Amino acid sequence: MAVRAILGQQISVQAATTLSGRFAAVFGDSIETPFPTLTRLTPTPERVAQAEPEELIALGIIRARAKTILALSQAVANGEIVLEPGGDVEQTMLALKTLPGIGEWTAQYIAMRALSYPDAFPHTDLGLYKALNEHNPKRVLEIAERWRPWRAYVAMHLWKSLEIKPIQETTLP
């Protein structure tokens, strides 16, 4: 989930999904399942930490994100950062933000998805801005205060609300 968050920075969900698939195809181990589209395991931090930036760049990942993925993989492989639920979330987010290319949005998103932190809230997310009809990050945080300690659930609900397409009125003859 952490690599997926990095791949999803400032690009469409579809583009990030494509890059994730390429990444898994190269770095993930093959697996047999009864599901035809499920053929790879998530790449391990140890495997990715050994890669060269050019291997990631060849997949279409920009150099800055390749360096971020490698730095994260090395930190996790070395035990400097633990991406499992139940740890000290605040300390983990601080450690994440020391890595190149990981800011508040990415740290919050990783806390939400990889650490299962129910109060994570990537308040600078464009989708949240759109769903809340608000573009001031301070104001978004103010609005979200009333949802503590469950802001991650609200964020997911707000993102889902953007998928709902209104029914078009039609005029019958």
Can you put this structure into words, describing what you see?
There is one protein chain. The protein is mostly helical. The chain folds into 2 domains: 2-117, Hypothetical protein, domain 2 (Endonuclease III, domain 1, Orthogonal Bundle); 118-164, Endonuclease Iii, domain 2. It has helices at 2-7, 13-27, 45-49, 53-57, 63-77, 89-96, 104-113, 126-132, 137-144, 151-161. Helix 6 crosses helix 7 (104-113) and helix 8 crosses helix 10. It is globular, with a radius of gyration of 18 Å.
Notable features of this structure?
single chain, 173 residues, mainly alpha, Endonuclease III, domain 1, Endonuclease Iii, domain 2, 52% helix, 0% strand, globular, disordered C terminus
- Give the strand content: under 5%
The computed structural class is mainly alpha
Main CATH class of the largest domain:
Mainly Alpha
CATH topology of the largest domain: Endonuclease III, domain 1
Integer-rounded radius of gyration: 18 Å
Major beta-sheet overview: none
